[in-house]
Design brief:
Largest sheet: 7 strands, mixed
CATH architecture of one domain: 3-Layer(aba) Sandwich
Number of helices: 17
Strand order of the largest sheet: 9-8-7-6-10-11-12
Shape: globular
Structural class: alpha/beta
Bound molecules: NADPH dihydro-nicotinamide-adenine-dinucleotide phosphate, (2Z)-2-iminopentanedioic acid
Order of helices and strands: HHHHEEEHEHEHHEHEEHHEEHEHEHHHH
CATH superfamily of one domain: NAD(P)-binding Rossmann-like Domain
Length: 446
């Protein structure tokens, strides 16, 4: 490691002990940025990177709620308000038993760069709880969401901090939280995004992260005069992002052969066509079942306890969670001929897996660029709410496509190397940084 990165990281680790995911995310960015900052001393003297790595505000609170048996349950609630240099804090809420401060800080840190890349005026934030929605009744989820929002409401607002969904938070949870916010404030505003379409939500927001991730893969392929037509696609996860990535990539002529959940993956060599995808969506979104049931329904292979990266594919779309591709899995993907990785999830590849992708010069689109379509359409939902109108599906999709193309262009601008190869890691880190850094310089030492 570069000695300047090493000493920067030693300080980060000392100040933020036991936050491995946060260290990982900061290091990946620091490796791109520190050489760039050396060439641009104005950022160095103003300690911009050091400031970006320290949240503006961290809110931690108790979330007590009553389960169906009448017993009191207690969870932790968090909101990390990371950076507001270019707009109000914006980013999702995650409800998952693994949620802790380090994970939310990594997500909030990534969000700052991602939101900047979208070209829209949004700062970065993230929040959530160690609450596990799995196995809970709708009433329990509602009581939890109401209690969570009772405290969160005093910290957020349509011009201050606008949360949305992430793992474990979809339309159902956003609805319960919006209802509680409205009741507490007596205000109907765009304080959350990912709302239902009847009550201020934007068309295409549910689809946006998955679609955007596929549009980004398409843009990367185009630099090699190639397309998704006829490609074999491996997807991980089977939630919001995975489902709509599968839908779009299939529409564009690719064949999706895997999806997964935290218990295992299914391999369907014939491809997950429209009919099977509809069945899968009902299984996951309505019945809230397990991916194993897909294998039983369609008579295909189910591999328990494993991730799908040993299956031969051209394009991998990791859409489940962080660190779901390690070095060996990255090497296996490359050995099997995979040459496109577009990250629907946040930080799904470990830093040494990223190195494998970079060394092999594949088309590797890191999450902060490739999955920015979700928050971008959240930004468009905020615009529609402010204007008190709603755009048609085609109009939002058109804007999403343009934003993903613009992000790709930014990656080329800051990430093209002397021999013409595009390093999307460098491109997205520097491209996301510059706008935030310049805004911070203009606003002084705040
Ligand atoms: P969902 O809750 O809808 O789906 C999550 C999926 O990932 C499920 O299939 C889940 O399986 C699986 N998963 C979750 N945790 C783990 C784990 N520890 N190990 C293996 N599999 C796991 O979430 P989303 O689809 O919204 O989010 C997926 C990823 O995309 C996350 O990294 C999120 O941060 C990122 N993202 C989401 C955006 C959005 O708009 N929703 C925007 C940008 C990024 P199981 O059912 O077993 O838990
Ligand atoms: O990681 C992400 O970008 C999200 N979960 C979406 C955030 C948002 O505000 O739409």
């Amino acid at each position: 490691m570069d000695h300047r990165v090493e000493s920067f990281m030693a300080n980060i680790i000392a100040k933020n002990p036991n936050e491995q995911e946060f260290h990982q995310a900061v290091q990946e960015v620091a490796e791109s940025l520190i050489p760039f900052i050396e060439e641009n001393p104005k950022y160095k003297h103003a300690k911009i990177l050091e400031r970006i790595a320290e949240p503006e505000r961290v809110i931690l609170f108790r979330v007590p709620w009553l389960d169906d048996k009448g017993e009191i349950q207690i969870n932790k609630g968090y909101r990390i308000e990371m950076n507001s240099a270019i707009g109000p804090y914006k980013g999702g809420l995650r409800f998952h038993p693994t949620v802790n401060l380090g994970i939310l800080k990594f997500l909030a840190f990534e969000q700052v760069f991602k939101n900047s890349l979208t070209t829209l005026p949004m700062g970065g934030g993230k929040g959530g709880s160690d609450f596990d929605p799995k196995g809970k009744t709708d009433n329990e989820v509602m009581r939890f969401c109401q209690s969570f929002m009772t405290e969160l409401a005093r910290h957020i607002g349509p011009d201050t901090d606008i949360p949305a969904g992430d793992i474990g938070v979809g339309g159902r949870e956003i609805g319960f939280m919006f209802g509680q916010y409205k009741r507490l404030r007596n205000e109907f505003t765009g304080v959350l995004t990912g709302k239902g379409r009847e009550w201020g939500g934007s068309l295409i927001r549910p689809e946006a992260t998955g679609y955007g991730c596929v549009y980004f893969a398409q843009a990367m392929l185009k630099t090699r005069n190639d397309s998704l037509e006829g490609k074999i696609i491996s997807i991980s996860g089977s939630g919001n992002v995975a489902q709509f990535a599968a839908e779009k990539v299939t529409e564009l002529g690719g064949k999706v052969v895997t999806v997964s959940d935290s218990n295992g993956y299914i391999y369907d060599p014939a491809g997950i066509n429209r009919e099977k995808l509809d069945w899968l969506m009902e299984l996951k979104n309505i019945k809230r079942g397990r991916i194993k049931e897909y294998a039983e329904q369609y008579g295909v292979e189910y591999v328990e306890g494993m991730r799908p990266w040993s299956i031969k594919c051209d394009v991998a779309l990791p859409c489940a969670t962080e660190n779901e591709i390690n070095k060996e899995e990255a090497e296996r993907l490359i050995k099997n001929g995979c040459f496109v990785v577009s990250e629907g999830a946040n930080m799904p590849s470990t830093n040494d897996a990223v190195e494998v992708f970079l060394r092999n010069r594949i088309l590797y689109g890191p999450g902060k660029a490739a999955n920015a379509g979700g928050v971008a359409v959240s930004g468009l939902e905020m615009t529609q709410n402010s204007m008190r109108l709603s755009w048609h599906r085609e109009e939002v999709d058109q804007k999403l496509q343009q934003i993903m193309k613009d992000i790709h262009e930014t990656c080329i601008k800051f990430g093209k190397e002397e021999d013409g190869h595009i390093n999307y890691v460098k491109g997205s880190n520097i491209g996301g940084f510059v706008k935030v850094a310049d805004a911070m310089l203009s606003q002084g030492a705040v």
